[in-house]
Specification:
single chain, 53 residues, mainly alpha, flat
């Protein structure tokens, strides 16, 4: 997903893509996803799914 966001960087100025990229960049910084980061990702994506279109 991070790769797709970077390949489609015109989306990075738009919500929720800007925030998504920031979170994924932070989480993937060390190349591993620990339990805390996994919970953060789940929480973020659950919030995204609740957004009204």
């Amino acid at each position: 997903m991070k790769k797709w966001l970077e390949e489609n960087n015109t989306m990075l100025g738009l919500s929720p893509f800007k925030e998504m990229h920031a979170i994924l960049t932070d989480v993937m910084d060390d190349g591993q996803v620990d339990i805390k980061e996994e919970k953060e990702l789940k929480k973020y994506f659950l919030e995204i799914l609740k957004m009204e279109v």
